[in-house]
Structure formats: structure tokens, C-alpha cells
Amino acid sequence: MSDALANVRYLVDDVQACVDFYTTHLGFTLRSSAAPAFADVVRGPLRLLLSGPASSAGRPMPDGETPVAGGWNRIHLVVDDLDAEVARLREAGVRFRNTVVSGPGGRQILLVDPAGNLVELFQPR
């Protein structure tokens, strides 16, 4: 089983809003869409599966718990100029979870997609 893409699934409330967010602001390309249930977008080797409430991934579990969007897991996108990306995205009205944080490996910030899922922008040292 070989696939050149890494696949990550995000549960979302509104598939089209998330497609628009990732393609407009973060450089993803729409690969396929069955909105409002599902779509997938691609950036480099990352395939992001956007699964809405009507998708099979959104169905309740046997114990009755329903999958929900959001949480603290996130995709991690490396950028060359974090300050420029933050300025560009703020200008576009993108919502951020925090301010830029510096650590031993570089600098990062978290932004929030329309469903509440996090995306980390990271600039290595």
C-alpha cells in the first residue's frame, strides 16, 4: 500500500467553508468534493480530508458519542517568513488562537479554521 500523500482527517461543521479557507488562505488545492458531506484538499504531500456531519466519519459511535470538530491536534505547516504570513492572514480576517511563540526550534502561531480545527504555522530557526 503506497501513497505519496500523507492523509489527515479533520471533522468540520461546514465542508464548503473549510474548502474555501484552506484553498484561499493556505495554498491548498481542491482534489475532490462531495459537499456538504466531504471534500479533500492537497498541499504538497499533505491530503487533508474535510469530513462534515453527513460523512461516514461524522456518524455517532456505537456508544452514542458523536465526533465533533475542533480540538488541539493540528496540522503543522512550515513557512519561510512567519511575520509576513501572520500579517497577510490577519488582513484577510483569519482568526488566531494565540500570538507568536518562540521556542528552541523556531517560532509558531496557531490559527483556527471555520470548524475550530487548529493549524500551526511554524518558522524554523
UniProtKB/TrEMBL annotation:
Annotated VOC domain residues: 4-124
A Pfam short name = Glyoxalase
Give the GO molecular function terms: metal ion binding; methylmalonyl-CoA epimerase activity
Which PROSITE patterns would you find in this protein's record?
A: VOC (PS51819)
Q: Which UniProt keywords apply?
A: Metal-binding
| Biological-process GO terms, alphabetical | L-methylmalonyl-CoA metabolic process
InterPro entries, alphabetically? Glyas_Bleomycin-R_OHBP_Dase, Glyas_Fos-R_dOase_dom, MMCE/EMCE_epimerase, VOC_core
This chain belongs to the protein called VOC domain-containing protein
